[in-house]
Amino acid sequence: MANKMSRVPVKEQDPKKRATNFDEVCLGYTFEEAVLESSRCLVCKKPRCVEGCPVEINIPKFVEKIKERDIEGAAKEIAKNSSLPAVCGRVCPQESQCEGKCVLGIKGEALSIGKLERFVADWSRENKVNLSDREPKNGKRVAVIGSGPAGLACAGDLAKKGYEVTIFEAMHEPGGVLTYGIPEFRLPKEGVVKPEINNIKELGVEIETNAIIGKTIQIDELMNEEGFDAVFIGSGAGLPKFMGIKGENANGVFSANEFLTRINLMKAYLEGYDTPVRLGKKVAVVGGGNVAMDAARTALRLGAETHIVYRRSEAELPARVEEVHHAKEEGIILDILTNPVEILVDENGDVNGMRCVKMQLGEPDSSGRRRPIEIEGSEFVMDVDTVIMSLGTSPNPMITSNTEGLDVNKRKCIEADEVGLTSKEGVYAGGDAVTGAATVISAMGAGKKAAEAIDEYLKQKSLSEC
Amino acid sequence: MSNRIVTKRQLTDSIYLMEIEAPRVAKASNPGQFVIVKNDEKGERVPLTVADYDKERGTVTIVFQTVGCSTKKLAMFEENDFIMDFVGPLGQASEFIHEDIEELKNKNIVFIAGGVGAAPVYPQVKWFKEHGLDVDVIVGARNKELIILEDELKSVAKNLYVGTDDGSYGFNGRVTDILKDLVENQGKKYDHAVVIGPMIMMKFMSMLTKELNIPTTVSLNTIMVDGTGMCGACRVTVGDEVKFACVDGPEFDGHLVNFDEAMRRQAMYKTQEGKLLLKLEDGDTHHHGNCGCGGDK
């Protein structure tokens, strides 16, 4: 019998060992562990966990199926709402979503919903469960721009509803941030991301890579010349921010996007791949979000002494607690209340230090977080030879600046209503392209909502054309 | 789409021309833009300027010099082989295509190409010719062997001035010497110069045109990864601003570019590039023992 108060622990790779490899850190539940954990679920009449899930998976129902040892049934239940369960079970911030609402969490530990979802998805992949049920084709075509979580979710849902869907992806591999951003040790590419994308292809979705909307093809061409009845834009927020401090263009300063793309997409760390990566012995990652943790833990695995440099205190780190915990276990050094003011450069143009100031926390700012204030006279030089800037990203203007009639707000995000409709008829948008950088699951949620809205719109349109 | 190599021509010992079947890229291409090429599964993404395009045939021409591992591997591809990934067109088109043709007619424009830079200059000059505009072209290279596309350029330029550093062909001297000679001794007046070639050549040419008071556009060949503005590997300082060459450029005001910084950044991976090239040429002999660390990779 499971202890009602605490969750069945999940096995992880030993921190010392995993700090030297790119294998997945969390090993996931075994069949028996999953069944045991599922038995803790109280099967609430009004399940608050479902409210916490951006794609509203019927959590008690799939957890019940696990309890009954019907994993195939559990997989089919999840598939009604999510096309990427193996991904979401791994990377969702469950503590602030489904698990954050679980009633077990009031007195003890919340049900381990993410790990259970992951178990079901991994099991159904290994046991080749067919999840490609779809309605008959309805002859309507939808173009989806971007193959990240928003685009994949939207495409998967539309395909299930009978639409002919083509995804246009700018890079040479689909997946967006799942492929170039989140590292192998959190989200295996061959083992998890590719099979999950293949499931979406199994639904009949076509993916055209190396097609940059706004450059290779325009949205108007897709609608007027290529016969698409509607468009969904899920192009994300991939434009990196820099600090604008002196020395930032020195050799050895990278955006986290560049560093992670070289590693995750281009496999620069593997023998036989042509893309190089240049990493020194002492690396500073500036920033405190999940991307900063990913970049730091990647640098560590390449053998560098790695520091996270963050201007607020540990309590304000925007990264998931689990990720910060993992990073510290692996030996990442946290330099909190520290802010870079200049990158020092040697005569060859290489980084040879970073001038920083110490900070203290003042009054809360508009975001509710305490504002960091520079401590006068606290300047010091950090001895580093590589700096990775992980300060957040904003939407790339490539699509919006080349598409007439598509409105953006002052943050360069696409203007869209609650179901994703933009200022252009038949064009919907969702995910980071609309909200700015957020989470995988909220992007998926937006993709789902837009799929419903597109379905509604095209049904209305064919009625009015009768 | 298909990425089939329709034509392959070896222009010099080390420079190749390939015409690639890529209808979508061809249809959308304009002078000044570039593509990214990835040879095979394990290849890197390499930016190459669009050297010509035929919208009806659905082809895009690239011209490249074998300077490292990836371009050497690309040169081994033959006609009817397929390049794995070919994406574009990227970057901003040449500023001229947005200008008023009548106003352009009143301008004296000179295009200046160094070495393999003659290839990206060609579609720009061709665009002028197609719009009934005459421009001068200066082409320079280290020696006669490295002069490319001379006939093609002659067919679209009003005047073509060719020179070599060693005097083995045409004018004896660098492209800067040719321009200086044209302006100071032959009474030429230019209102604008477009300079494409090695970074060091663009730097010195920009210094000269500044002296001669000729507004100058250069096309920067920085290190790139995605080519879509996602990473900032290609960032350059132009005036007081940091720009991404892949989306804001590749063409910039040559008098505002910080060339010294750009050249330092271009050399960032010199050791790794050298190692890969040695490995390609000499096999595995340069591989690091058994430590498995892959050197400083």
From TrEMBL, chain A:
GO molecular function: iron-sulfur cluster binding; oxidoreductase activity
Cross-referenced InterPro entries: 4Fe4S_Fe-S-bd, DPD_II, FAD/NAD-bd_sf, FAD/NAD-binding_dom, Helical_ferredxn, SudA-like
Signal peptide start and end residues: none
Family annotation (PROSITE patterns): 4FE4S_FER_2
Domain of life of the organism encoding this protein: Bacteria
Ranges where the 4Fe-4S ferredoxin-type domain occurs: 32-65
Protein name per UniProt: Glutamate synthase (NADPH/NADH) small chain
Organism: Asaccharospora irregularis DSM 2635
UniProtKB/TrEMBL annotation, chain B:
Pfam families: DHODB_Fe-S_bind, NAD_binding_1
Co-factor(s): FAD; [2Fe-2S] cluster
Molecular function GO terms recorded: 2 iron, 2 sulfur cluster binding; flavin adenine dinucleotide binding; metal ion binding; oxidoreductase activity
Binding sites annotated in the UniProt record for [2Fe-2S] cluster: 231, 234, 246
Keywords associated with the record: 2Fe-2S, FAD, Flavoprotein, Iron, Iron-sulfur, Metal-binding
Residue span(s) of domain FAD-binding FR-type: 1-123
Keyword Iron-sulfur on entry: yes
GO biological process, one term: pyrimidine nucleotide biosynthetic process
Binding-site list for FAD: 63-65
Entry superkingdom: Bacteria
UniProt-listed NCBIfam families: PRK06222.1
The protein, known as: Sulfide dehydrogenase (Flavoprotein) subunit SudB
Species annotation: Asaccharospora irregularis DSM 2635
Taxonomic classification: Bacteria, Bacillati, Bacillota, Clostridia, Peptostreptococcales
